[in-house]
Write a structure and sequence with these properties.
With 354 residues, this protein is α/β, with parallel strands linked by helices. It has 14 helices and nine strands. A seven-stranded parallel sheet has the order 1-2-3-4-7-8-9. A two-stranded antiparallel sheet has the order 5-6. The chain is globular.
Length: 354
């Protein structure tokens, strides 16, 4: 969700339904070292509440310092630690989804965040493990619980799977059985509100985390709120409703970034919003080639608002679906799971944004 879940998109999603909307992934080391990009990505909207930051790191000391800075200087009200990233540049140094394999180091990192946060809740996001032969979610979930995490979330895929295939919801049920004193949240293949209801029913999890399912569908959160209240959900708005939201999203991005950067940033969202709608390639091309907000809105106004989403397109997967692919980890990474030694600066990337 790097480059997507910035403050304008979070505010847009919040306008459609209640939820906890987390920032893009922020580097703990980038925060401590004062990197300009990191602070830019960590900005909250002027009325944003709660102020929720997603943080990445592998060194307990750096993590603690970063959390203190987020809480004391940026008034963060929730910190979410991301141990689910499967990207090679992260796992090859032992970070992201690889770190929970080093369970003592993982526990030290989470504990440092919890201690530095004080009364601010710290949650942890996991994957099942690196691959089917190196699973970590049960150990990591219990460790996170023991050191004071407020909740654990599981993306029910391995790092090797990346975003391919089907999420293994049975792993969420396993984690729920292992972790008994804090909420367990499920993530993976929630494309519609009814998917969330089914996940909770099948796994017993306490709530859900939505990632790619909201790409081009911020109204999914209204559907989720309705479904959890027992009301009808899973709307498939006509194109007129979709373009209204697209125009709103574009204006928010332009207000936040400035018009040039805002319209450029909006281009990535066009395909997601129009997924499944029979509008033709020419209309999509005009939108991504629009050079300012006025031109973008003019292109939207040319679309037929009565166009509906074909039934077969409702609930289609969104976003990247790459994988499976081998996971690269550091040399001798498997030798000692209980080695608490930090992995070095290369593992603790200074770059933010995923």
């Amino acid at each position: 969700m790097a480059g997507v879940t910035n403050a304008p998109f979070r505010d847009l999603c919040r306008s459609h339904g209640a939820g906890l909307y987390v920032s893009e992934m922020i580097s703990a080391r980038g925060m401590v070292e004062g990197h300009e990009k990191t602070f830019r990505l960590a900005r909250f909207g002027p009325t944003e509440s709660p102020r929720s930051i997603q943080l990445y790191g592998t060194d307990p000391a750096v993590m603690g310092s970063a959390v203190r800075r987020l809480v004391n200087e940026l008034d963060a009200e929730h910190v979410d630690l991301n141990f689910g990233c499967p990207v090679r540049k992260v796992t090859r140094h032992g970070g992201g989804a690889a770190l929970p394999w080093r369970r003592r180091l993982f526990g030290d990192v989470v504990a440092a965040a919890v201690q530095a946060a004080g009364e601010v809740p710290v949650t942890v996001k996991l994957r099942i493990g690196l691959d089917d032969d190196h699973t970590t979610h049960l150990d990591a979930g219990v460790i996170a619980e023991q050191v004071g995490a407020a909740a654990v979330a599981l993306h029910a895929r391995t790092a090797e799977q990346a975003y391919s295939g089907r999420a293994q919801w049975s792993a969420i049920a396993e984690l729920k059985s292992a972790v008994s004193t804090i909420p367990v949240l499920g993530n993976g293949d929630i494309w519609l509100a009814r998917d969330a209801i089914r996940m909770m029913s099948e796994t017993g999890c306490d709530g859900v985390v939505v990632g790619r399912g909201c790409l081009g569908r911020p109204w999914l959160f209204a559907d989720l709120a309705a479904a959890f209240e027992g009301r009808s959900a899973d709307t498939a708005p006509n194109l007129g409703a979709v373009v209204t939201v697209m125009a709103d999203h574009a204006r928010r991005l332009c207000d936040w970034h400035g018009e040039v950067t805002g319209i450029r940033d909006m281009r990535k969202h066009v395909g997601w919003y129009l997924q499944g709608y029979p509008v033709g390639p020419a209309a999509r091309r005009r939108l991504v080639e629009a050079h300012d907000l006025e031109a973008f809105v003019a292109c939207l106004s040319e679309m037929d608002p009565s166009i509906t989403l074909p039934p077969e397109a409702v609930g289609l997967p969104r976003g990247h679906q790459h994988g499976p692919r081998p996971v690269t980890v550091p040399r001798d990474f498997w030798v000692d799971r209980d080695d608490p030694t930090p992995l070095g600066a290369a593992a603790d990337l200074a770059a933010s944004g995923g």
